Amino acid sequence: MSNRAKALGSSFERKAVRLANEAGVDASKQPGSGVFKEFPNDIILNGDMLGECKVRAYHFNAKGEKCFTLEKSWIDNVCKHAKQLGMRWAVLFQPKGQQQVYAVIDYDLLLKLLSESERN
Questions:
Q1: How high is the pLDDT of residue 2?
Q2: What pLDDT score does 68 carry?
Q3: Which CA distances in Å does 93 have to 11, 37, 41, 57, 98?
Q4: Cα–Cα distance measured from residue 30 to residue 36, given in angstroms and rounded to the nearest whole number
Q5: Quick one: which of 4, 83, 87 has its CA closest to 45?
Q6: How far apart are alpha carbons 34 and 53 in whole angstroms?
Q7: Sheet with strand 102-104: strands edge to edge
Q8: Which long-range contacts does 69-74 make (Cβ < 8 Å, 24+ apart)?
Q9: What is the pLDDT of residue 7?
Q10: R_g of the chain, CA atoms, integer Å
Q11: pLDDT at position 8, please?
């Protein structure tokens, strides 16, 4: 990975932590952004969710539509580490040059969050 790509990724990790903190969610960046076995993946959210942060450029499909790629390996990796730690997981994704942040989470967790929201 080039220094420029690494800087872009680190910047997004800091942004994800800042946005979470501004929303009242405790969040922190993992030392080394997943380089150290003791600190897998990129960020910790709410003390119980492991997050993997990715920034990627749009590309165009055969129809000329803007697309971005979500790699299964990103989900598999964060899911494996989260399971080992007894945590939930999320892949946070930002298209390069855009401000919008997307999150991919387990569907069962989404249903649980929606169910809890209904009760409140």
A1: 65
A2: 87
A3: 13, 22, 14, 11, 11
A4: 9
A5: 87
A6: 10
A7: 27-29, 43-45, 49-56, 88-95, 102-104
A8: 70/104
A9: 73
A10: 15
A11: 72
